[in-house]
Structures are given as C-alpha cells and as structure tokens.
C-alpha cells in the first residue's frame, strides 16, 4: 500500500524535475580493464549526451573474471558484462539464464570488440634470461600467474602454456600436462585476479616473471618506467577474445536496454577503438588496428577454436577435477 | 642502649626454603637479561606496529597535502566514507541492543542451553570472515534460498547496502556481548535483588541499576565494535559486488585504489582508517585509566 503510494508519488514528481533523463548503467568487468573503461565511459557519456540529450553514468565493478561472473549469477545486477573470456558469460547464460545462450553471435567478432594476448613481463635486463615458455620451468625461476579458477587472464595464460607444450612435444598430451605441472610448481602465489598478480610482481617484488595480459604488461611499464621492467614475447601465445554482452533480463528490468545496446555498439566505433588501442588492447577495426600495429609484438597466436572451444576447454582444464585440479590440487 | 628493633629489616624467622620461587623470581634475573628482553619487546612493537603506521602516513602524504585532500574529497572516496559511516551507524546500535540483551539474559538469569547461547555468540569470532560473507550469498543470492522470492518482490540485499550491514553486524556481533558478560558476571545479581526487594519493577532495575553499573564496559564494547565495523574487509568484500561509488566501503576502496596504481590516494584513505584506530585506542586507554575498576573484569584486551 505504502510502497504503491510512494511509487506513484515518485512517478508524479520525477517528470517535473527534469525533461532529460538520466540513466545509470552497471558494467561488471574483469580486472585489468579499469583504465580502459574509465576512458571509454567518459567518451560514451559525451557521445550519448550529444545524440540524445540524456546523461548516462556508468558504474564499474572490477575483479577476477570468473569471480565477477559468479557475482552476476548470484544477483549482482549488471546491465552489461565485459569479461575476460566467453566461457564466463556462457556461465551466466547457463546458470542464471539472464541472457540467451547464443549471445556471442549478437555482436561482431564473436562479441569481442578488442583482443589481446599473453606475454611475459620480466625485471629490467632479464636477469633469469627468460625467452620462451620452456624457460619458465627451469629450477629457481619464480613465475607469477593468477588462479585460473577465479581469473580469466589466468585461463588464457594456462592455455598459452599448454599450446606451447603441445607444439614442443608434437601433440603429446601427457608431456604437455607434465610441462604444466612443472610450471605451476614454480608459482609461489596464485592471486584471484590479473591485477592482483601484477601488483604482486610489480609492487611487492615477488617472482622473476609475470605471465600477463599484453595490455597489463604495457600498463605496468607505463606506470613504473621502462627502466624497471621489460616485455618478452614468447614464440607462441593465444588470441584472447574478451567478450562483451548485454545482460538482457537485468537491462530490461532497469529499462536500460537501449542505452546498454548503444554502449556496447559504441565499443566498435573508430573513436572507442582508438581508446582501445591507446590502452594497449588490440583493436578489431582494421583501420585503427593498422595505426597501432607497430606497438604490438608479432607472435604466432592460437585461437580458442584451436582448443575445441570454451565448453571443451572449461570441462577438460578448469572444471572440478579437471587438469588444473589434477596438477595443482594433487 | 635499647634500640627499637625494625622488624621489617629482619628475615621472617621460619621462612621455608623455596628454591623454585627464588629461581623464577623476575627480580633475581640478571640486569642484562631484563634489559635485552624489554628491548626485544620494544623493537618488535616498533617494527610490527609503529613502522607500518608511520609508513601509511608517509605514503599518504608523498604527493603533498593537496593530493592527500583531493584523494579524500573525490566522489568515490566520499561515497565510500558515507557508506562506511552508514553501515556502522546501523550495525553498532543493533549490536548494542542485542549485546545488552544477550549479556543480561546470560548473566542475570539461569536457563537451559545457556552454554549453547554463549557458544553461539562467539561463533563470528571463530568463523572466517569470508565464510560469514558467503552464508549471505547462499541465503540471499539469486541462486540462494531466499533469492528468487526476493527478486520477485524487488528486495535487494546482496550486492547492496542491506547485505553489507548484515555481514558487518554478523562479524561484529560478539564484541559488546563478550565485553559485558564477564563484567556482569563479576557484579552478580545482589544490586538487582536489592532493588527488587525495595519494590522496583523490571524496567526500573534495568535502567537504574544494571545499566549504570555496566555503562563504561558498554562504551568500551561499542568502541571496539565500531572499530571493527568500519574496518571489516573480508565479509564485506564477499557481499559488496565492488561497485564504485555505490557499494564500496572504505577498506574496499583502499584496495581498489591500490590496484589502480593510485598508491598515495590508497594510503590517504587508509590513513583515515588508521586515524580511526588511533582515536579508538586513545578513547580505550582513557576509559581504562579513568574507569579501570568498573572495567576490571574485562581488562584483558
């Protein structure tokens, strides 16, 4: 009764207060995109205001990609999710049924407006002489990587290492598994997210090499100076496609569907693609990508399709009792 | 010459020989042992408590006093401060009421399962804060027991202020009750019985006798409870959802700033928490100093 009264009186007041609407979107994202979306959100708000006259505020939540997906499943009301990998958005679609299972087809490039890859960040002068994946399993090399159970970046790290080991051992899965076991043996700490792992390596000075998102590695060098760290590009890595999606049920409930759709489409515009390049993500727009081509090292990149897709990879590697559990738990 | 004998200077006539006591008496330790032990304790305190405290303030002021205040008046920081104050303003009074009721029931009355109740009050102390947060995810999460019903009725608990209040209240529950129980046990029920025999009713006994007897202990408990409520990280982190400007408390905001390489801002907000700790410590010492007798039963912190 009272609730109804309040609601109707609010409805009566609101239109008289302002004619231009003001919307708030919640973007639940993964760990290293903090700087990227700060810039993108400002650009989108200006663009939206110019086009429609409405103001839009985008609230951000960041954390390990898997952890963030879990929070959305548990009820964190994200209008859009911009996570590290498709499997985490699949989980939201499957477990909470907040968006259709074929969400990946709704936007261009598998709903990934930018890509990235996995590289190594080492201390200046590369004192342990780390050149490629096989150097990471040498005794006495401490490797920092986050926990694949909670972090999306860590799953890409894991897959890149696995791809290398398969190639080096002519596709022998048992030997590749042994390589991963040796690799995780050299990991002193598993943080929950990529940013946590970066601060462990960069700020707390733990480890000889950080397996990191390319953008995260570039950002650390920007923040701390070229005299502290260098990037090492391995011979083989993965093409990481961080995916974005509108969370239909939440956006509809909030009445934010239109602006949420526009927000994600905006990511594909040349203006946003340029911000993406500036933040060291690889733009998907060919014209913009060409401008930033000299920034990024040329590496042979495996795609998720080479591993049989996320559903297969998730079950084989990261699910309860999967490959990661077998080598790290046991 | 009959000088009066000063008995205090003489050994008692038949003191039995007690080698153990002699050996263990602190006063018989060599001077260097005492000095080095004291020095070791002081260095430990300096290194583990004072240095980090100083480091917080040094880091916070690294980019100057202007940057310090800028970090604090920034929108998201102010939102975090407001949220932390709101949460404490709800959680502490709740625990004040629950704590007094629980302590009153336990110490002034006898009933079955009393021991069970005491154990339950201690539960938040023994459970990891992460677990304290997760129980609310299990109950109020969209996939939890009450989640579907709540989302139908537009109640938001998890990843919103109510969830943070719940988690904070749970974690800080024992502070006040635990402070009052030993104090009230030591005081016994004589005063109350006297008041009752003089014709006071239950309310009068509580307001005029029990409450004045425990007021300083209560204040002490409220202080500790408040300090923890404002500083709680683990449980709040699980239920917060980490939405900047909406559900970030001060400790969570510190973590975010630190993770964004915004170190001086992170330490600026951390210094506010440190100042809260110092204030709590000061008030606590003042209470112990002025009202030590009335806190006697609980001076174990």
Automatic annotation (TrEMBL), chain A:
Domain of life from the UniProt record: Bacteria
Main location: periplasm
Pfam families, alphabetized: SBP_bac_11
Any one GO molecular-function label of the UniProt entry: molecular carrier activity
Coiled coil: none
GO CC field: periplasmic space
Secretion signal, residue range per the UniProt entry: 1-20
Subcellular location(s) per record: Periplasm
Keywords: Periplasm, Signal, Sulfate transport, Transport
Database matches in InterPro entries: Sulphate/thiosulphate-bd_CS, Sulphate/thiosulphate_BS, Thiosulph/SO4-bd
CDD domains in UniProt: PBP2_CysP (cd01005)
Gene3D superfamilies assigned: Periplasmic binding protein-like II
GO biological process, one term: sulfate transmembrane transport
Entry function: This protein specifically binds sulfate and is involved in its transmembrane transport.
Assigned protein family: Belongs to the prokaryotic sulfate-binding protein family.
Listed NCBIfam families: 3a0106s03, PRK10752.1, PRK10852.1
Entry protein name: Sulfate-binding protein
Automatic annotation (TrEMBL), chain B:
InterPro entries assigned to the protein according to its UniProt record, in alphabetical order: CysW_permease (IPR011866), MetI-like (IPR000515), MetI-like_sf (IPR035906), Sulph_transpt2 (IPR005667)
UniProt keyword list: Cell inner membrane, Cell membrane, Membrane, Sulfate transport, Transmembrane, Transmembrane helix, Transport
UniProt GO molecular function: ABC-type sulfate transporter activity
Subcellular location: Cell inner membrane
Transmembrane segments annotated in the record for this chain: 37-58, 78-104, 116-139, 159-177, 263-283
Any one annotated GO CC term: plasma membrane
Domain spans labelled ABC transmembrane type-1: 81-284
PANTHER family listed in its UniProt record: SULFATE TRANSPORT SYSTEM PERMEASE PROTEIN, SULFATE TRANSPORT SYSTEM PERMEASE PROTEIN CYSW
Binding partners and assembly: The complex is composed of two ATP-binding proteins (CysA), two transmembrane proteins (CysT and CysW) and a solute-binding protein (CysP).
Name of this chain's protein: Sulfate transport system permease protein CysW
Organism annotation: Hydrocarboniphaga daqingensis
């Amino acid at each position: 009764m009272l609730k109804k009264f309040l609601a109707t009186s609010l409805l009566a007041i609101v239109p008289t207060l302002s004619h231009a609407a003001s919307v708030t979107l919640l973007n639940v994202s993964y760990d290293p995109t903090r700087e990227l979306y700060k810039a993108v959100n400002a650009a989108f708000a200006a663009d939206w205001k110019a086009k429609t006259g409405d103001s839009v505020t985008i609230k951000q939540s960041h954390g390990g990609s898997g952890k963030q997906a879990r929070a959305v499943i548990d009820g964190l009301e994200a209008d859009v999710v911009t996570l590290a990998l498709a499997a985490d958005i699949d989980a939201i679609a499957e477990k909470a049924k907040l968006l259709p299972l074929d969400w990946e087809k709704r936007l261009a490039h598998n709903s990934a407006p930018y890509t990235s890859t996995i590289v190594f960040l080492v201390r200046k002068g590369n004192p342990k002489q780390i050149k490629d994946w096989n150097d990471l399993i040498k005794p006495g090399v401490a490797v920092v990587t986050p926990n694949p159970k909670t972090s999306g970046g860590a799953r890409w790290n894991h897959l890149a290492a696995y791809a290398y080991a398969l190639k080096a051992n002519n596709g022998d899965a048992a030997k590749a598994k042994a390589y991963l076991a040796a690799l995780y043996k050299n990991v002193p700490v598993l943080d929950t997210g990529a940013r946590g792992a970066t601060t462990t390596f960069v700020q707390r000075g733990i480890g000889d090499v950080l397996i990191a998102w390319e953008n995260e590695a570039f950002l650390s060098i920007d923040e701390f100076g070229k005299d502290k760290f260098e990037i090492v590009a391995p011979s083989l890595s993965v093409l990481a496609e961080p995916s974005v999606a509108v969370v239909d049920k939440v956006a509809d409930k909030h009445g934010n569907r239109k602006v949420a759709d526009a927000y994600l489409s905006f990511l594909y515009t040349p203006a946003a693609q340029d911000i993406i390049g500036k933040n060291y993500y690889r733009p998907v727009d060919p014209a913009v990508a060409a401008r930033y081509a000299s920034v990024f090292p040329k590496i042979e990149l495996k795609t998720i399709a080479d591993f049989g897709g996320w559903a297969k990879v998730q079950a084989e590697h990261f699910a309860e009792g999967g490959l990661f559990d077998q080598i790290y738990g046991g | 010459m009959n000088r009066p004998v000063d008995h205090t200077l003489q050994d008692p006539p038949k003191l039995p020989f007690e080698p153990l006591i002699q050996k263990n008496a602190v006063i018989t330790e060599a001077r260097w042992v005492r000095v080095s032990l004291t020095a070791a304790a002081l260095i430990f305190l300096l290194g583990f408590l004072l240095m980090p405290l100083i480091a917080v303030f040094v880091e916070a002021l690294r980019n100057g006093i202007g940057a310090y205040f800028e970090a604090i008046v920034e929108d998201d920081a102010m939102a975090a401060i407001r949220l932390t104050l709101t949460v404490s303003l709800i959680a502490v009074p709740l625990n004040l009421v629950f704590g007094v009721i629980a302590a009153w029931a336990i110490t002034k009355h006898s009933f079955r399962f009393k021991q069970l109740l005491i154990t339950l009050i201690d539960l938040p102390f023994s459970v990891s804060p992460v677990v304290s947060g997760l129980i609310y995810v299990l109950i109020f999460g969209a996939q939890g027991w009450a989640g579907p019903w709540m989302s139908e009725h537009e109640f938001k608990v998890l990843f919103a202020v109510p969830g943070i209040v719940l988690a904070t209240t749970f974690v800080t529950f024992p502070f006040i009750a635990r402070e009052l129980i030993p104090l009230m046990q030591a005081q016994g029920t004589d005063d109350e019985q006297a008041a009752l025999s003089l014709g006071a009713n239950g309310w009068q006994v509580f307001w005029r006798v029990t409450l004045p007897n425990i007021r300083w202990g209560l204040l002490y408990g409220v202080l500790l409870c408040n300090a923890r409520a404002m500083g709680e990280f683990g449980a709040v982190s699980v239920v917060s959802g980490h939405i900047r400007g909406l559900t970030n408390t001060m400790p969570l905001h510190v973590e975010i700033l630190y993770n964004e390489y915004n170190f001086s801002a992170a330490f600026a907000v951390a210094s506010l928490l440190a100042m809260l700790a110092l204030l709590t410590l000061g008030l606590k010492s003042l209470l112990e100093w002025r009202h030590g007798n009335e806190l006697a039963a609980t001076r174990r912190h």
